[in-house]
């Protein structure tokens, strides 16, 4: 029931997604590995070997969280502490299952190996800008939880290049893209479909694509628009010299993934996201969740805070699991604003990542 209910709602959300440039004025880091040919990977993960991912995490004492290679979503500050949207979500998961938000081992992964690392048990969860696709779910044997960020594939050009939208490309132009991602696959399909004189220049990492673009080995760079906006803010000498084109050539529901053989762990990751979304909807913020004397009146808020019996026992958690996640990361709006939005160095708008009540696509599932 966990998976069926979530997939049904996710299907509705994805079906109505209409990514438009003004709504998703953001750009993305390495999307996700290109839809591969069927991969027959034996499931040798901890969940298959020893009774469950959660049990393995608790015996180990740490959560192994797979994040992308160094990016604006997860980076180490001058003290060595991991910062960013993905890092804080990993900490929320650690708080849920270990009651210790810092009991996280951050594992940096590149697009070409991240699925293998998840399958072989090197990481417990993949929080690395992975696009949820039917092919990946069916062929690679992954379980996708729920989209944590909605995005779409866009492009950046140098201002003054004469390219203000893709239709302006009339002479051969080179496009930098991360290899082994849906971004690369989408780009190749777009070139075939439109016949535009674009040449694909693939690199294995985000650093590699940006280095090539800034050194003028490429005329354009493509990626998730959120990541492109983030990278433009910190990687370019002057962000105003680089134009995010209005074109959007794909839909990218970026979704934490787990192995497909452990529905209990899948449910915990999925509903941790929904707990953060619900907390924003009902007004349970980080300060309130962290307060020893936290109080609430409404049934949903009381259950989020562990004041009334909740549904944690169904997946082996106590009643305070959601409270720990919120106290660690804040509700979804706080998490976004602090790491990506107006409270960060990036200043991105919520756009598609607002709650449905504010014109976005996020809609929290019932937790009880």
TrEMBL record:
Pfam families: SBP_bac_3. Residues 1-26 form the signal peptide. The keyword Transport applies. The keyword Transport applies. Keywords: Signal, Transport. GO terms for biological process: amino acid transport. Residues 62-285 form the Solute-binding protein family 3/N-terminal domain. Belongs to the bacterial solute-binding protein 3 family. This is Asparagine ABC transporter. It comes from Caenispirillum salinarum AK4. The lineage of its organism: Bacteria, Pseudomonadati, Pseudomonadota, Alphaproteobacteria, Rhodospirillales.
């Amino acid at each position: 029931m966990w998976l069926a209910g979530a997939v049904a709602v996710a299907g509705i959300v994805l079906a109505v997604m209409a990514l438009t440039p003004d709504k998703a004025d953001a750009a993305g880091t390495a999307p996700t590995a290109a839809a591969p040919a069927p991969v027959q990977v034996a499931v040798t993960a901890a969940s298959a070997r020893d009774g469950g991912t959660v049990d393995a995490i608790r015996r180990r004492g740490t959560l192994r969280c797979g994040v992308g290679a160094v990016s604006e979503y997860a980076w180490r500050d001058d003290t060595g502490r991991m910062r960013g949207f993905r890092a804080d979500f990993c900490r929320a998961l650690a708080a849920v299952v270990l009651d210790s938000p810092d009991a996280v081992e951050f594992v940096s992964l590149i697009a070409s190996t991240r699925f293998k690392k998840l399958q072989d048990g090197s990481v417990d969860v993949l929080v690395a800008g992975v696009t949820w696709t039917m092919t990946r779910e069916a062929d690679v044997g992954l379980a996708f939880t729920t989209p944590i960020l909605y995005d779409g594939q866009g492009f950046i050009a140098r201002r003054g290049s004469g390219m203000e939208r893709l239709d302006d490309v009339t002479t051969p132009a080179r496009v930098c893209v991360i290899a082994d991602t849906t971004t690369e696959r989408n780009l190749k399909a777009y070139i075939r479909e439109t016949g535009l004189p674009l040449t694909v220049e693939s690199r294995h990492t985000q650093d590699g694509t940006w280095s090539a673009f800034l050194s003028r080995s490429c005329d354009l760079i493509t990626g998730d628009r959120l990541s492109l906006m983030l990278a433009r803010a910190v990687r370019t000498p002057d962000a105003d010299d680089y134009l995010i084109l209005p074109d959007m050539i794909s839909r990218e529901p970026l979704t934490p993934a787990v192995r497909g053989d452990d529905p209990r762990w899948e449910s915990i990751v999925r509903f941790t996201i929904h707990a953060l979304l619900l907390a924003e909807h009902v007004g349970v913020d980080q300060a309130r969740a962290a307060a020893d004397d936290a109080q609430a009146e409404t049934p949903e808020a009381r259950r989020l805070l562990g004041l009334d019996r909740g549904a944690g026992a169904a997946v082996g958690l106590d009643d305070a699991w959601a409270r720990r996640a919120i106290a660690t990361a804040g509700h979804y709006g706080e998490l976004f604003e602090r790491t990506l939005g107006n409270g960060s160095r990036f200043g991105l708008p919520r756009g598609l990542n607002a709650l449905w009540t504010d014109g976005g696509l996020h809609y929290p599932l019932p937790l009880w």
